[in-house]
Structure formats: structure tokens, C-alpha cells
Amino acid sequence: MKRRRAALSFCALLLSFLPGLTAEEFHIVGSRAMGMGGAGVAVTRGVLSTYWNPAALCLPAASESAGFFEFALPLAVMGTASRDALRELDEVTELSGRVDFRAIEDRLDRGKPLTVDQVRSLLALAGELPGLETNGNGFLTDVSMGLGLRLERFAFNSIGLYSAGAVTRLDRRNLALGNKGIEGFLPPGKGRPVTSAGRLLANDLVNAGLLGRSQADHLVSLAEQAGVNLDSSGFREMVADILEATNDNSTGSAGDFITANQSGVEVSGIFVQEYVASYAHPLKDWFSPSVLDSVSIGASLKVMNAKTFFSPFSLSSLDAFEGLDGDLLTEAREETSMNIGIDLGLLAQPTDWLSLGLVGRNLNGPSFDFARAGDYELEPQVRAGVGLYDLLPSLVLAADIDLTRNHTDALPGYGSQQAAIGFEYSLLDGEAVLLRGGVSKNLAGSEGASFHLGLGFRLADVFIDMAAMFTPRIMEIERDAEGGLFELPERAGLSLMIGCQIPLD
């Protein structure tokens, strides 16, 4: 009776985490899962069950647990990039490279107005800066690697999970053009706007009390010459912010010159080394014959050693887009801490051709010291899966879906809720060569569907798996002044895994 109550409490605890949760993006661990579209909750067997579903360490229909010793070395790398982030960062860094920040700062320090060219370059940059403010725009990289050991219903695994993000940020505080007010930076001139949008902007600046008529006309005329889109609400707001900051700075308010602006890129992330001990058990050992005979439960206890990092980079420190190619983390702030994590899993096999899985990861919501500020929390993840076998000879079908909307502190504002479907087909007798494929889609994001391909090889007790994934949608951005293009898929990944299974006599 105690075991029965414990099992029911176990199921209730897992299901209680379903509604309204967010969590870190669900990593694709192992080449078999990546090759099958990222689906693994109901079909993963062996040592990687410690990650995908610990209940799979013990198949519910089996009278005895699996009798073999197993180890595996999985490695996977994935990257996701926002189309807008790449374009905006490329344009902003290119424009910032045309701004001579040292010369501007020198003139402002000496109380001399800026030159016409300097104002034009700053206005062109101001036209693109608002694009950095879009929440969720950025780059995300996930890496997984590990070493696992399995002995019957027990498994031990060391898995490294790495998430790093680069997000664009807009500094709206340090925007002042000197401390002498409008007259301190605006060069002499009597330009007039020639477009209707320019005349409307000039009128708005005058009506807001930010500029006099001649000053507003002259400034807007310079913006037109710089090729700025004057219909952009982001640019209009940015101009108003710059003028307000300049006026405030002349009265001694807080803030600094625009040359000290920290708009740019923030790189942050977490590396978690999980030391996992997992165990699974069939419910038929605890219950009288019933529908639960086809269900097994599993649990993982994890000692988690985490290192978080954070490093900001201002536009003035980046040399066009190539400035991101260097070692970004040499001066990153880092924090190291430890915690405990709990995973629970359910696996049902009501027939020989069907398996149903449910897994909850990090159900206790472990948190770690964040190098940026506060805590880096790994909120619970819940994912469901289904597997179909032998609908056709040598064919396995699988599908997964995240039941939580996941996010990552490495890329604030980015949402992930993956739906995945895939197959595995044995090309030769004995599963010596396995062909895999699948499709995944982030239901919470704007990126397109990802296509997955994989191959598996079995030689005696040794196996080698490899896989790749990519989105067909390619992003093109200008790489250099000659118009060369830099191309990236929105989402891409590679995976390799080697291991062996040794039967126990």
C-alpha cells in the first residue's frame, strides 16, 4: 500500500508541473534523437534515458530488466539566430564603424560644436539603434556532451549542458551630445527639410519645446541628408531622447555623453555539469494486474555544478561585424555554484507497437548564482512523446512536444516550445545501418521548420551515430565593403555519438 501511494504521488507530482510553466530550452542530447527530429521521450533506450526519460531504463512489458553494460559519448552543437538580430546588428555595427567616437568626444570635451559630417553619422546611427531594443533578438548556442554508464535498471551519467546567448541591447541613458545644450553640438547652418515626414518631425520637435524653429529645421535637414527613415517611430523617439538628454546634461543631471553609450551586445550563458544517478521500476511489481501493468516509472537525482558568465560589448568596441569574431569571453564575469536537480519520467507500453512517454526535468527548479545579477533559474521542463513500432518492417516513428513554454536567461525574450516528429529505418538486417530523418518546429518562435537527417552504424557491440539539422531559410547579411555576403541558417546543429553495449552473461 505504501508503494502504491508513493507511485500515485509520483505521477501526481509530475503532472502538477504541466500548466503555465517556462523553462530552459530542451537540449537535443544524442545523435539518434537529433536525427529523428529531436524526438526521444518515448523511444530512447539505454544510457541516454537518464536525460530523455529515466522510466525507459526499465521497459514495463519486460519481466526482467535489460541485461547489458553500456556506455556512450554523445556530443551535439546547435545554434539559433534571429533574422532581425543579425540584420540589425550588422547595420548598426557598420554605421558605428563610420563614427569617429574619439574625435566627437574631443570636440564635446572642448565645448566645440560637431561638424556636419559628425552629426550626419550620429543621426544615421540613431536611425538604426532602436532595432537593438527588440526583445528576443539575438543568437543562442546549445552544446551537450557527456559520458554515461548503465547496468540493468540503474544508470549513471555525466552530462555537460552549455547555453550561451548574445543579445542586442540599447542604452537609452547615456545619450547626451555634450553639456552645453543644443547650441553646444549643432553646427551652424540654415537647412530646411524637403520631405513631408521631415517637416512633420521638425514641427514635433518645436512643439515639444526641444528645439527652436531654425534648429529643428537644420537638424532634420541633416537627417534627410544622412538617408534616415524619418517615418520610423523608433528614430523619432531616439532623436527626442538625445535632445532631452543633451538639455538635461547641461543642467548637471545624471547620464553621460553618447560617446560613452553602452548600446551593443551582451553575451551571457550557463554551463551545467550534471552528475546523474537514475533508476526505473515497473508498476506491475507494486500493483495488482491492471492497466498500470504496462507502465514504468523512473527518477533521476542530479548533482549540478554550474558556471554562469556575462560580458557586455559596446558598439564603440566592435569593428563592424568582424568585431564579434574574437574571444568574447576573455574578460567575462563568472560565477560558480552547485545545486540538486530532480527528474521524473513515465513510460507506458500498452501494446508491442506503441509507447507513450512523459518526462519532467528540473522539477525542483534549481537556481544558480548569475554573473549578470540575481539568480539563473532552471525552471521545470515537461515534454510528452509517442513511439510507433513495426507499422512497416524495420520502421520506428516518434513524435515529441514540449508541454511547457521554455525560455533561457542566456537570451531574454526568446521562447522555445518544440514540436518534433521523425523516423528510424533499418537499411540492413540486424540494424547494422540505420537511416533517420525528421522535422521540428518552434511553436513559440518565428524561425522556420528545421529538417533533420541522421545515420547510425552498428558493428558487434559498438555503435556510431551522426546527425545534422538545419532550417532551409538562409540569412544573408553584408560582410564587407565590397558587398560580400555572410550566410547563416536560422537554426542548425551537428551531433556525433559513439558507444557500446556489452551483454551480461
Q: What structural class should be given to the helix and strand makeup?
A: alpha+beta
Total count of domains:
2
**Helix and strand run:** HHHEHHHEEHHHHEEEEEEEEEEEEEEEEE
The CATH architecture of the largest domain would be Beta Barrel
**Main beta sheet: strand number and arrangement?**
14 strands, antiparallel, barrel
Count of DSSP H/I helices? 10
Instruction: State Rg.
Output: 28 Å
Q: Approximately what portion of the residues adopt beta-strand conformation?
A: 35-45%
N-to-C CA distance:
35 Å
In short:
It contains 10 helices and 20 strands. The chain has 505 residues and is an alpha+beta fold.
Could you characterize what this model shows?
The protein has 505 residues and is an alpha+beta fold. It has helices at residues 2-15, 31-35, 49-52, 83-97, 101-109, 116-128, 182-185, 196-207, 213-225, 233-250; strands spanning 68-81, 138-151, 154-169, 264-282, 295-314, 333-351, 354-361, 367-369, 375-377, 381-389, 395-402, 406-407, 415-416, 418-426, 433-442, 450-459, 462-470, 474-478, 485-489, 491-503. Strands 1-2-3-4-5-6-7-10-11-14-15-16-17-20 form a 14-stranded antiparallel beta barrel. A two-stranded antiparallel sheet has the order 8-9. It has a two-stranded antiparallel sheet with strand order 12-13. The radius of gyration is 28 Å and the shape is elongated. It starts with a helix and ends with a strand.
